[in-house]
Amino acid sequence: MTEKTAKRVYTYSLFLGFALLCWQILIYRKTIVDPRLLLIIVFIATIIGVVMISRNYSKIYPMYSGIRLMFFTVLQSLVSFGFIASAIFLLMNFYFASEEIEIQKHAIISRSSMSGGKRHRNERKPIFEIQYNSYYRKQLVFSNQFYERRNEFKIVELEVKEGFFGFDILENKTLK
């Protein structure tokens, strides 16, 4: 692989990793998966990436050496290998899920809120935390129309289906 091609591959994989990270955040909100598992996937893929590209990276970017070279190698591996591997895991679990939907009811443990998006900062969105199973809590973000009445709700009704890797996917959520 020529130096020019290698630089292009590193650049494209960097942008792909960031794009998949943004998509992954949206999918994560609809998936019941422990974030520690995703961090482990990112960590392992990053280590594999560092081992794979460290020699080539120093040849392609000779202006970096020592700590700077290691920093940029790890950063490139984190985004290119870690985020892409984690996104592939979440996207496969989400898009290859079963079609069978199960309805579950969960008590609300705590309530909080977050500001709205750009140009809508004053529109607060309520966040309800539920105990999904015996070891995992999930925060669910709802539309700002529920903010004023957030203290009236006691239960969240979820329509879930089983993902490809066994992690549940939220199809619909309703406040009761």
Largest sheet: 5 strands, antiparallel
| Strand numbers in spatial order across the main sheet | 3-2-1-4-5
Roughly how much helix do the residues carry, as a percent range? 40-55%
Spans of at least 5 consecutive residues whose pLDDT stays below 50 are none
Give the N-terminus to C-terminus distance in angstroms.
59 Å
Question: If you had to describe this structure to a student in words, what would you say it looks like?
Answer:
- The N and C termini lie far apart (59 Å).
- Helix 1 crosses helix 3 (66-95).
- This protein has 2 domains: 3-95; 101-175, OB fold (Dihydrolipoamide Acetyltransferase, E2P).
- It is built from 3 helices and 5 strands.
- Helix content is 47%, strand content 26%.
- It is of the alpha+beta class.
- Strand 2 (125-133) and strand 3 (136-141) form a beta hairpin.
- The protein is elongated.
- A 5-stranded antiparallel β-sheet has the order 3-2-1-4-5, with no helix packed on it.
